[in-house]
Amino acid sequence: MVSEYGVFVDGTGGSDVNAGTKDSPVKSIGAALGKLGGKPRVYVCEGTYAEHVKLTSAVSLYGGFACGAWSYSGAKARVAPSDAGYALEIVGVSGAVTISDAAFVPAAGTAGSLSSVSGFVSGSTSVTLRRVELEAKAGAKGKDEAKAAAGLLMTSMPTAGTLDG
After folding, report:
1. What is the CA radius of gyration of the chain?
2. Structural domain contains residue 91
3. What is the C-alpha separation between 113 and 48, in angstroms, rounded?
4. Which of 15, 18, 25 shows the shortest CA–CA distance to 65?
5. Burial state string for 25-45 with b = 16 or more CB within 10 A and e = fewer than 16
6. Which of 8, 21, 80, 147 has the least CB density, counted as fewest CB within 10 Å?
7. pLDDT of residue 156
């Protein structure tokens, strides 16, 4: 692992103003994604990251590293945002995405909150997960639907003898 191929993340010893190198890691995965500059990888050391991770371009996210030494420990980087929403979201990525040695844990649902599902993938055709844990939390009642205007039950009547009647 060298800094020329990726951005390094250390949730306890890093700072988001750092360059994201092996010797000067950033603190958050979000900051690392903003500093890729064409690099294909993000290396994340063990620990818990209280943030949402949203991938919109081809990138590999590798957890399982001991902080400081950057040697493989197998301890998963844990992404656990404290607010509602997906812990991991991959949207509209046309290239390959690989995630390994990570756990994604959303916040539990509350009345009217977003989903308590850990991950969501949409419009992305080449996603590989290795040694990844996706955990769902308890759901809750969603927002109430908007009420229809009085007297409006439907906009058209079914026609007898057709598919809608």
Report:
1. 21
2. yes
3. 23
4. 25
5. bbbbbbbbbebeeebebbbbb
6. 147
7. 47
Closest CA relative to residue 96, chosen from 52, 129, 63 = 129
- Return the beta strands (E) in the chain as ranges: 6-9, 41-45, 47-49, 53-55, 60-65, 77-79, 88-91, 97-104, 119-122, 127-134
- Tokens linked to 110: 């509350």
Number of domains in the chain: 1
| Residue-level pLDDT at 28 | 98
- Look at residue 15 and tell me if it is in a domain: yes
Residue 10: closest CA among 30, 22, 27: 27
Note down the domain range covering 42: 6-134
Residues 97 and 67 sit within 8 Å (Cβ to Cβ): no
Of residues 15, 39, 18, 17, the one with CA closest to residue 27: 15
d(CA 24, CA 16): 10
Do 19 and 11 contact (CB within 8 A), yes or no?
no
Please check whether residue 121 lies inside any domain of the structure.
Answer: yes
Average pLDDT of adjacent 10-residue blocks, the chain of 165 residues: 92 97 98 96 98 97 97 97 92 97 88 75 95 84 58 49 49
